[in-house]
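Reopening this ticket.

The earlier resolution said the output was attached, but the attachment link was broken on my side. Pasting everything inline this time so it's all in one place.
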Amino acid sequence: MGVVMSVKKNVLIVDDEPEIGNLLKLFLEDDFNVVTFTDPRLACDEIVKNSYSLVVSDVKMPFLTGLDVVKHVKKVRSETHVVLITGHAQTERDKAEAADLGAAGVLFKPFGDPGKVVAYLNQVVGSKVILPAAPFTKSITIPAAKPLAAGCKPLIMAIDDESDLIEVLSMLLSDSFEVRTFSDPLAALKQVGEEDYKVILTDLSMPQMAGIEFITQIRKLKPNVPIVIMTGHAEGEKEVTDALEAGGSALLPKPFPEPDVILDKIGKLIKK
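Inline output:
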């Protein structure tokens, strides 16, 4: 059965974590025209200026909450659907308040299967696009890299205590690498010696163990494996310098750069 051609509907995503907005954009851009905002105030200004079929908003954000966004959208664009994003357990009262304000539903983080997210949001907006009969399971395609056959992909490890960021990174890398992800550096250390990891990516700030200590322990187990330090604005210059001196091989800034930049950096480390 063929696909009914239709004009893509406009979707606005607002989440103060840019990685989450970018992940959702990657999920949805085949079916929708997607714009993303990290500041809910700017998103609300945009909604006044332009019409969107759907607004997807995080619940917990600085300046405005997701419930504030729902109120604003329904005031200025009553026909626009709103879906909230939350990674926290919701009470029945929270759900009732969101529904009373006009929210169409909730997406929970981490998102899991991209196909289910796409299908759900298509259902919310009443899209006329006919979805394939089989589940949507494609990975994100990175134009700069060619997918490798199963069993031939280099094995890499990624550690970050923020599950959303690990999900983003895994999605970005899975076409070209076999990715093992961990949220606990102590659990990751137990696995380092078990398999032949070509590259290890680690966050610098983690509650279970400081990134510098984690790098030091990795160097005792795997003296030659390249270690990529994932670092955001919170880390100071000295902390980053100390991590490199402890054995870090390269830096990867957060929010993450373009996918091909990440792949190129990891590819060069593997070839060394």
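Reporter confirms the inline version is readable. Strands lie at 9-14, 32-37, 54-58, 81-86, 105-108, 155-159, 178-182, 199-203, 227-231, 250-253. The two ends are 49 Å apart (CA to CA).
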